[in-house]
Amino acid sequence: MRDAMATAEVGDDVYGEDPTVRALEAEVAERFGHEAALFTPSGTMANQLALQVLVPRGGELLCDADAHVVTYESGAAAAYGGISTRTWPAAGADLDPEVVAAMVRPAGFHMVPTAALAVEQTHLRGGGAVIPLAALQAMRRVADAAGVPLHCDGARIWHAHVADGVPLSEYGKLCDTVSVCLSKGLGAPVGSLLVSSAARIARARELRARLGGAMRQVGILAAAGRYALRHHIDRLADDHARAARLAEALAPYGVVEPERVRTNVVVLDLSKAALDTAALVAAARERGVLIGALGPRLARLVTHLDVDDAGVDRACEVLPALLAGGSAAR
Ligand SMILES: Cc1ncc(COP(=O)(O)O)c(C=O)c1O
Asked: Which atom in ligand 1 lies closest to the alpha carbon of residue 123?
């Protein structure tokens, strides 16, 4: 990947003249069966550009209460897009399209009209859960019946593709906009893309410039992304197997149901554990295992290309000891 970056052909992407960025955008658009794509510095920017393109100021986005676009991203939809959000109950990938359909509000005097729906594939706070294809198809029907577009926060859509074998183009067909990240499981240092129609991407390009997200000789980063697409998608299955192994090792402590771990995220429910998140994170860090905190009693383990079998062995040794014996465990 470093070699690909070092030898990348570059140009000024602010003028659309970076051949490596253009090749990356074309390749990703094609993989999802869409007309165009736009390279962005982050998944947050790709998501927020999508929302600003789809939802007019004062309009409403419907998404789930645990969605990244409303839980994180610093309130950008409201702060920069003037977008109202209303959420259906957090359910990870267990979507209930009928609940969503019942929430849609039409335009009209006094109303906040629903302008778009958003789903997250895979679902981060839902423990990397994969939304089944049938549920996504049902969401498409809800969007069509409401006459609104469907956005997919596909930061980890590659994982869903590998876990369920659904072609990326099938996901692309069901969604009007898809954001994808190269910088997570795929292992590029930086970079995401927004995928959509040529008209929407042209608008997103203007909005990206307004946010200061237009970059110059950025082909060195696009080259890393192109390398990741070639070499790091199929290997995600290894990350999934390692996450499954972690979940099996931790299941006896009542913090995770292994059958729900489908991809590379293992969310630990510490509500009945001896340690809360802060204590577990600190004790694990001391013993060389890094854990993310999602809440006072909710933690997240992630496997990726820098975590090998020996790393998982280490976590399988350290974490059960901590969960069994509190912070004194060695
Ligand atoms: C589901 C999801 N969407 C979007 C993002 C935002 O990506 P970035 O950190 O590149 O802004 C993340 C980051 O973790 C994520 O998990």
From this structure: 1
